[in-house]
Specification:
The complex is a heterotrimer of chains A (525), B (326) and C (304).
Chain A lengths: L3 H10 L1 H5 L20 E5 L15 H10 L1 E2 L1 E2 L11 E2 L2 E8 L2 E6 L13 H11 L17 E6 L2 E5 L9 H5 L4 E2 L2 H5 L16 E7 L2 E6 L12 E6 L3 H9 L5 E2 L4 H8 L4 E16 L9 H9 L3 H8 L3 E2 L23 H11 L10 E7 L5 H14 L4 E7 H8 L10 E6 L7 H8 L12 H11 L4 H19 L2 E14 L2 E2 L2 E2 L5 E2 L4 E2 L1
Parallel strand pairs in A: 1-12, 1-13, 16-17, 16-18
Antiparallel strand pairs in A: 2-9, 3-4, 5-6, 6-8, 7-8, 10-11, 11-12, 13-19, 14-18, 14-19, 15-19, 20-23, 21-22
Chain B lengths: L1 H30 L4 H6 L5 H11 L5 H13 L5 E6 L18 E3 H36 L4 H15 L2 H15 L15 H27 L2 H8 L4 H39 L4 H10 L3 H29 L6
Antiparallel strand pairs in B: 1-2
Chain C lengths: L16 H14 L1 H24 L37 H37 L1 H16 L2 H11 L4 H12 L1 H15 L2 H8 L4 H37 L11 H9 L6 H35 L1
Helix pairs in contact in C: 1-9, 1-11, 2-3, 2-11, 3-4, 3-6, 3-7, 3-9, 3-11, 5-6, 7-9, 9-10, 9-11, 10-11
The chains are: A alpha+beta (525), B mainly alpha (326), C mainly alpha (304).
């Protein structure tokens, strides 16, 4: 039967259940634990990769875990009142010495969970390692050879981007996004200790991975003071109904990715409260641009004109926010694009005919891959999009997959990757638009759509190399973004509204617009 | 002595059967579309690398060769490694193809060993519930064939067998767990989480027990030795329970062996709905995640378990009724 | 598992076959359970066959603005146009449920017929020819029985795309051994009887003996009990659909609809419940009929 150790572990996590008056025969239930000594149980909607190296994945759930464990130079709360605000964390000061030189002054007295003191060499190692072109997480404005990092002393870092041709200011917004890893860990390389466990300067330290549970404990040496909860247990539960029932039953303390109907249900519950925020995440319909038929931009455009995004908004309800660009409205450079594809069946047919497939005749069977149990309503609007495309003559079949299976098929491969269209969201906790645009649409990176288009590359380089923020914004809004709207390697359907449900007595949490959560000052009960 | 001969013969037959099952499943998984190496390497792997990995893993060898190698491992207790779950048991996906940690995957046998006890616990409790529900109804029906207890048994068993288990599970979870808050439904924190899933399973199994019992009890009670017992003046209770039940038990025992197969189907769905961390949930997740080695391992283990249970059941039946010959 | 293995019938002589079958039928028909079952079944069958076309409501037509409407009288916003309400994309629940019933019945009946046919054939060959043919076929049967049906089904369907023929094949092939066993034992005992020997002496070919002489004799009693298997296959199909391995969307099947509806159980309970109710009613009617037939058959054989 169940072994004693496992039983005790579950009993420890389930402390509150014993205290709840509604459950009866005592001998069947675990003993009540004293209030305040219980870790927060966070149910996640996405699986992790099993490789803890921060640069080896682009999985949001794992980034969320990093949010508990790792330290960042700064954080970007991205509030509507002050969208560009940076709250200093590991850095104390970030100043532009010149257009191509950035100086970062670091906080003293911070230590990693393994005891190593945090110094400038860790920042240098993180930047140099993470920018290597073979790293799956492509977040840097250029590869390692396009910038230089020097450390005049233990608590100062200078980033010089003159070699790369772009401004050092790009590293400012990036500072809020990159978890800082230990130089000692990085020295062991991509196959070393980085993959086996997380080691950071954040409020919670990584203890172990138990099945689908990531167990984290409060780090008493956290520079802002010991966290007020003993730990966080981050569990993957791939089904939205199960997550909600767990929250209602008291087995979970906070869940993410609520659907609009669940919001309705939970609003009536007295012991549950909700946190709703327009997020930095957009949901996209990615086209596989490196294989037919979607290697032809005319066909991509035709497909976009077949889709009525307003109808999708009706499906999404409160979980979606209409937007007409490739990034979220809270990202730097957002503007409602005029030439963003609208629902226009006539234009769709015209484009199909121009491409040589009048009425969709001659098109091969198209597979549209989406997930279920992770983002809200993907299956529902997947069915709607499929029907809309089929109405225009596209022979589309919808493949709905469980999250881990979908994650396995998501990324681009040589030859194009599975399916012809994939549904996925992209969430990056910083106002920096290149974390979406460059990561996905530059030929050196093209994580999902596989596009290789020199015009797009040139436009991306132009806005990256812009000499001032204003120039950059203009380049983005008048050059790159309209170009993308014309070539549509991917169609942004809407901006996600992230809705978290949690116990009413769980206070002190701060949830960033990318879903990352600061629990260092949380209190329960 | 007889028992020994019986065991040897049946175990030998069983081994052949398990072997055949393994061969069948193994071949199926290799010939269907969807390259397992793709899944292993995943992410963004180029063709050349896929071929290389496939060669190294021996996946391009002819199927009989692969199978021989696999069975060799099985005999030593190695059922291979999961495609999807890493050594610490979580589900993965989305990492790059040259990710070195992809080599350290969870052992299939380990995953099965972890979850099987949970399912056994669920199955036993379900059996108990099923017997508690079904025996009174079935016996009452059998003792009064043609009259209202019998008709009642017919109606009840028809109703029970018509309730789709997944539907019942959802409805009961909603009513008993969420609305009335009587029993916990999702996951597993302690033993009480087994109650609701076991009850749903029991409803699924009860009708067959009821039917078997009504037929066999009626059949036994109609036989002459029962009349003779009455003439001899034995009390009704003694007749029913001592003589009647013992003989009626044999078909029931037989049925229990077959119930196991039925139970397996029910367990899959029930564990899925209640998020009960047993073998059923593992199987469903394995199928959804296209985790071939895990699916294979589970098929072999369940086939072996099924064979063993049947052997045990037949042995027990022979003990109770020496007239039977297996 | 049906009652077949428990009461293997002593097969009647040649001339009695037709009357035995009709006796079973008449006895079952006289019981009230059977009649209730029959009436309910016929009503549901007609509804499934006729309503979706007659009503003109398209079960796949989405109407997002009209989504999640409740059934008649059971909440705000119900309408006569959608007696059982609408689902999460505004599709009519009644049409969808009835189309789902169509697929369930289709797959249930076809699968059972396939099971019966394959099982009867193998059992016939096995019982008639005996010796080596028998041994091989019986070992095959045993091996088949050893594989839990569901594991086989989800393995095959889980790794390839589930299409209707594939589903029918997988379900049918997983259930034939029981029929094979019964057929085999009956044929074995019949074979020794006078009338068969007579036919052989007269020069009838094996084929002729098997199919024109023995088959009409043995099949009807088995067929009656197969009715119960229709119900079992319908459940099996919906379970597969529930875990995503049944007939694929957008085709509505009970499994699909209930699986989708599970998400909405708190706000729109009818999506998950209605198909379940229909399935339940259909299965109950089939099971009542089947159980009555089984009783009648046991009575006719046991008593006669």
């Amino acid at each position: 039967m169940m072994n004693r150790r496992r039983f005790l572990n579950y009993a420890a996590v389930a402390g509150a259940i014993g205290a709840a008056p509604r459950l009866n025969p005592d001998f069947l239930f675990s003993p009540a634990m004293a209030q305040g000594t219980k870790p927060i149980v966070f149910l996640s909607a996405e699986n992790i990769t099993g490789n803890w190296d921060c640069t080896a994945h682009t999985t949001l759930s794992q980034s969320t875990i990093q949010g508990f464990v790792m330290g960042y130079l700064a954080r970007a709360p991205m509030t509507p009142e002050n969208p560009g605000e940076l709250v200093m964390e590991l850095a104390t000061e970030i100043t532009e010495l010149s257009a191509t030189q950035l100086q970062i002054k670091l906080r003293e007295g911070v230590t990693f969970h393994d005891g190593k003191p945090f110094t400038a060499e860790d920042v240098k190692a993180t930047f140099e390692y993470g920018s290597q072109p073979d790293r799956p997480a492509q977040n840097y404005p250029g590869a390692t050879d396009t910038f230089e990092v020097t450390t005049p002393d233990d608590y100062t870092v200078i980033v010089d981007t003159s070699k790369g041709g772009y401004g050092a200011s790009l590293f400012i917004f990036l500072a809020a996004y990159l978890p800082i890893m230990s130089a000692k860990d990085i020295a062991e390389g991509p196959g070393g200790i980085l993959t086996q466990r997380l080691n950071g300067t954040g409020p919670f330290k990584f203890v172990e991975q138990r099945g689908n549970d990531t167990v984290m404990e409060a780090f008493p040496g956290y520079f802002k003071g010991a966290p007020t909860v003993p730990g966080v247990t981050f569990s993957f539960v791939g089904d939205a109904t199960t997550r909600m029932l767990s929250l209602m039953g008291g087995q979970a303390d906070i869940i993410e990715r609520l659907e609009p109907e669940q919001v309705e249900t939970l609003q009536g519950e007295a012991n549950i409260k909700l946190n709703t925020a327009v997020s930095v995440e957009n949901k996209y319909l990615w086209f596989r641009c490196s294989k037919p038929p979607f290697d032809n931009p005319l066909i991509r455009k035709a497909a976009c004109h077949a889709i009525d995004r307003e109808l999708i908004m009706e499906v999404m309800g409160t979980a979606g926010h209409a937007s007409n660009n490739f990034v979220s409205p809270i990202k730097f450079g957002y503007v409602d694009l005029e030439n963003y594809p609208k629902y226009d069946p006539e234009e769709c047919q015209r484009l199909l005919a121009e491409a040589g497939f009048p009425g969709g005749e001659g098109l091969p069977e198209l597979e549209y891959i989406t997930s279920t149990g992770f983002y809200p309503k993907t299956k529902e609007y997947g069915e709607v999009i499929t029907a809309m495309l089929q109405e225009q003559g596209f022979p589309v079949t919808l493949s709905v997959m469980e999250v881990a299976a979908w994650n396995e098929r998501l990324y681009d491969r040589p030859g194009g990757g599975p399916g012809h269209m994939v549904d996925c969201g992209w969430s990056t906790g910083s106002p920096e638009p290149d974390l979406v645009l460059r990561t996905h649409f530059h030929s050196s990176s093209k994580r999902i759509c596989g596009i290789e288009d020199p015009e797009i590359d040139a436009a991306l380089d132009e806005e990256r190399n812009a000499t001032s923020l204003d120039a950059r914004q203009t380049s983005l809004q008048t050059n790159l973004m309209p170009l993308l709207a014309d070539k549509v390697p991917a169609l942004s359907l809407f901006t996600s509204v992230m809705i978290h449900g949690m116990r009413a007595d769980l206070d002190g949490l701060f949830i960033y617009p990318d879903g990352l959560t600061d629990a260092s000052m949380a209190t329960m009960g | 002595m007889f028992v020994l001969k019986f065991l040897i013969r049946r175990l030998f037959q069983g081994a052949i059967i398990v072997f055949l099952v393994s061969a069948l499943i193994f071949t199926l998984l290799r010939v269907v579309p969807g390259d397992p190496v793709r899944l292993m390497a995943g992410g963004m792997a180029p063709e050349a690398l896929i071929e290389q990995i496939a060669e190294e893993m021996g996946l391009r060898d002819p199927i009989p060769v692969q199978f021989a190698r696999y069975m060799g491992g099985v005999v030593q207790g190695d059922l291979g490694q999961s495609f999807v779950r890493p050594a610490n048991g979580a589900s993965v996906g989305g990492a790059s193809f040259d990710d070195s940690t992809r080599g350290e995957r969870a052992k299939v046998l380990g995953l099965i060993a972890e979850t099987a006890p949970m399912t056994i616990q669920l199955a036993l409790l379900a059996m108990v519930f099923a017997l508690v529900i079904a025996i009174p109804i079935g016996v009452a029906g059998g003792l009064a064939p043609g009259r209202w207890p019998d008709r009642m048994a017919l109606y009840l068993s028809s109703i029970f067998v018509s309730l789709p288990n997944f539907w019942l599970g959802i409805v009961l979870a909603l009513l008993l767990s969420v609305k009335l808050q009587l029993l916990p439904a999702i996951g597993y924190q302690n033993f009480s989480y087994t109650i609701l899933p076991a009850f749903v399973l029991a409803i699924e199994m009860a009708p067959f027990i009821i039917r078997t019992l009504t037929v066999s009890v009626a059949g036994v009670m109609a036989q002459s030795f029962i009349d003779i017992a009455r003439v001899r003046g034995l009390s009704r209770n003694r007749i029913v329970f001592h003589h009647g039940m013992k003989n009626a038990a044999v078909p029931l025992l037989n049925l229990l062996g077959v119930q196991f197969s039925m139970l397996l189907g029910g367990v899959l769905v029930v564990e899925f709905i209640f998020d009960y961390p047993g073998l059923g949930l593992l199987t469903i997740n394995a199928v959804m995640q296209r985790d071939f080695p895990l699916i294979q391992g589970i098929a072999i283990v369940t086939a072996a378990a099924f064979v063993l249970i049947n052997i045990v059941v037949d042995l027990a039946a022979t003990t109770i009724d020496p007239r039977l010959d297996y | 598992m049906t009652a077949i293995d428990i009461a293997i019938p002593p097969a009647p002589g040649a001339g009695e076959a037709r009357t035995v079958a009709s006796r079973i039928w008449r006895m079952a028909f006289s019981s009230i359970e059977f009649r209730i079952g029959l009436v309910v079944f016929v009503l549901l069958f007609l509804a499934a066959a006729l309503y979706p076309e007659l009503s003109g409501i398209d079960p796949t037509k989405m109407n997002i603005r009209g989504k999640l409407m409740p059934p008649l009288f059971m909440g705000e916003g119900w309408s006569w146009a959608h007696p059982l309400g609408t689902d999460q994309l505004g599709r009519d629940m009644l049409s969808r449920t009835l189309v789902g019933l169509r697929y369930s019945l289709l797959i249930g009946v076809t699968t059972t017929v396939l099971m019966l046919a394959v099982g009867a054939l193998i059992g016939m060959l096995s019982g008639y020819y005996g010796k080596r043919v028998d041994m091989v076929l019986m070992r095959l049967t045993d091996a088949q029985l050893a594989i839990p049906m569901i594991i086989l089904a989800i393995t095959i369907l889980g790794v390839s795309r589930p299409t209707i023929p594939a589903i029918i094949l997988v379900l049918g092939l997983a259930g034939w051994p029981v029929y094979a066993r019964v057929m085999r034992s009956t044929v074995m005992s019949e074979r020794k009887k006078e009338y068969v020997r007579g036919a052989m002496v007269l020069g009838a070919t094996d084929m002729r003996i098997m199919f024109t002489l023995l088959l009409p004799l043995v099949l009807p009693p088995m067929a009656f009990v197969a009715v119960l298997d229709i119900a079992r296959m319908m459940i099996f199909e919906s379970v597969l659909g529930f875990i995503g391995l049944g007939v694929q969307p957008p085709t509505p099947t009970f499994g699909n609809i209930i699986a989708d509806g599970r998400k909405y159980i708190m706000n729109a309970w009818w999506i998950a419940t209605m198909p379940g109710v229909f399935l339940f009613l259909t299965l109950t009617s089939i099971n009542l009929m089947g159980a009555s037939l089984e009783r009648a058959r046991n009575a006719v054989y046991g008593g006669a």
